[in-house]
Amino acid sequence: MRHGETVDNALQLMQGQVQGELNAVGLRQAEQVRDDMADIHIDIVVASDLKRSSDTARIVAEPHHQPVVTTPLLRERDWGDFTGRYIPDLKGLPWPENVEKLDHLLNRACQFLHFIYQEYEGLTVLAVGHGIINKAIQAVYYQCDMKDVTRMTNAEVRRLELKHDYNGNTPSAPANDKNFCIT
User: Of 75, 99, 101, 121, whose CB neighbour count within 10 A is largest?
Assistant: First the structure.
């Protein structure tokens, strides 16, 4: 799941790894997901340790009476010097050197899948993250390029079923012959 809309989302500001604050729309989105998922069995709720995701997770977890486990593995991509800037103004600009590298992001996604498999095998986990890290997790899971994963909207939920451990040894080579799971 992606966190609900934030003040910065509405202002089109690049958030990266800043905490972020849900706005009124984001709170309603989280409450709607909570209500929609109230009758779905959830064993554990895991969220990014950034406020916008952990707040969303706490709202959705309410009817399940589950605490929220936070992890930095689910943090959004670090946008370096792009953080806090107006997104439309960034089009066509060269990326700063301090933006988190794609291989690091994909490795973090792989580590997250490995963590979930190792810690919660056989359990139903609701994971609340961010747009780009969620995209990276799906790219690792589906063994595809990130550009082939559809953008997630705020508070969108997607279901992944882990059938094997993502510890660097995926059962088959990714479609693009890249080894996303770097050990």
Answer: 75
DSSP 106-125: HHHHHHHHHHHHHHHTTS-E
What is the C-alpha to C-alpha distance for residues 20 and 42, in angstroms, rounded to an integer? 26
- Residue 21 sits in a domain of what CATH number? 3.40.50.1240
C-beta separation of 7 from 159 below 8 A? no
pLDDT, one tens digit per residue, over 105-123 is 999 999 999 999 999 988 9
User: Across all residues in the chain, what is the average pLDDT?
Assistant: 91
Res 36: pLDDT: 98
Structural domain span for residue 77: 7-148
Burial label for 54, CB within 10 Å (0-12, 13-18, 19+), is buried
51-61 vs 24-36: helix axis angle to the nearest 10?
Answer: 40
Q: Give long-range contacts, CB 8 A cutoff, 24+ apart: 142-146.
A: 143/170, 143/172, 143/173, 143/174, 143/175, 143/176, 143/180, 144/174, 144/175, 144/176, 145/176, 146/102, 146/106
Question: Where residue 164 falls among pLDDT bands split at 50, 70, 90?
Answer: low
DSSP secondary structure string, 131-159?
HHHHHHHHHHHHTS-GGGSPPPPTT----
